[in-house]
Amino acid sequence: MAGFGRKGDDGINECQTADQAPMTSSTYFVSQLEEWIFLKYLEKYFLYVIIYSTMLLVVILTPFIIPLCILFFVYLSSFFCLIYQRTHRLQEDYSSNRWDSVRLTVANKWDQFARFWNGYELHGTENLPDGPGLIIYYHGSIPVDYLYFLYRLFILKRRLCYSVADEFVFKLPGLKPLIDLMGFMRGTKEECLNVLKNGHLVGLSPGGVREALFSDQSYKLLWCKRKGFAEVAIDAKVPIIPMYTQNVREGFRTFGSITLTRWLYEHVKIPVLPPYGGLPVKFRTYIGEPIRYDPNITAVELAKKTKAALQSLIQKHQQIPGNICSALKERFHEEKKKD
């Protein structure tokens, strides 16, 4: 019957199938041995492929771990606000003092992280006015340094600084409790004027997301011809206070040099490609001397004066171009140099 071994004419066992030529037992053994060896090596190298693929994936994802952790902390803070509101049945507006205990709890946790990971320092708080003022800051790849500032300021002075955020921030699901708690707003001219006239600080970055994505280690300000903030300061008759965080570009980087990044941003107006980095470099936020209200200055002149003051603050405290190794050295080995 086809498919079974039979005795050959020469007395040697043969194996064959209906569609195959007769195969001797020795040939069959060699064939099975080769198949076994192939499977053995396939299993061995398959394991290597899995191991090296996993290692490659870890290497690729490592630069994004800290940014993802920061995003997780942001959502965790927002979730905490929501739980607190539900459990304590708070009906008051987030601007109410009844929310100060929540703000302080969230601020303390963020400040602990800032101290641990970046050795965060805040200098120049004496330059902040007791009344209203407009804080103009340099926008890093991730404005985590600005969050550090907001929380440290609240811890030190129990003072809330309202902040102008990009429109896409308000479209992120689940962040509304934290956004409201920390005073983030879309920043229309009327909204900013109202907050300033009520005696509060307002923080904004004229460069915004564009500066975050496309500035680099040279710390160039990308403001285009924006002067709306200057108009607000003039109308509200408040000082402008420049602010900048040392090594913020060494802490986090973006894919801003890639043509695709600029093309995507110009078409969708949101940062599509994620930032990366998160090295524990030294962060020091410097608050510069205020630019006092001058009724005789125009908005264009005030915008140029503010830009020059902020650029001067950067040049005074920042190694340009920025260097990651130097920033790490400052974090672990050097004390703050006297101004």
UniProtKB/TrEMBL annotation:
Cited Pfam families: Acyltransferase (PF01553)
InterPro entries with a match to the protein in the record: Plipid/glycerol_acylTrfase
Transmembrane spans: 45-76
UniProt cross-references to SMART domains, sorted A to Z: PlsC
UniProt keyword annotation of Protein biosynthesis present: no
SUPFAM superfamilies referenced in this protein's UniProt entry, alphabetically: Glycerol-3-phosphate (1)-acyltransferase (SSF69593)
Keyword entries, A-Z: Membrane, Transmembrane, Transmembrane helix
Keyword Membrane part of the UniProt annotation: yes
Highest taxon in the source lineage: Eukaryota
Chain ranges of the Phospholipid/glycerol acyltransferase domain: 133-248
PANTHER family in the cross-refs: PHOSPHOLIPID_GLYCEROL ACYLTRANSFERASE DOMAIN-CONTAINING PROTEIN, TRANSMEMBRANE PROTEIN 68
UniProt protein name: Transmembrane protein 68-like isoform X1
Source organism per UniProt: Gekko japonicus
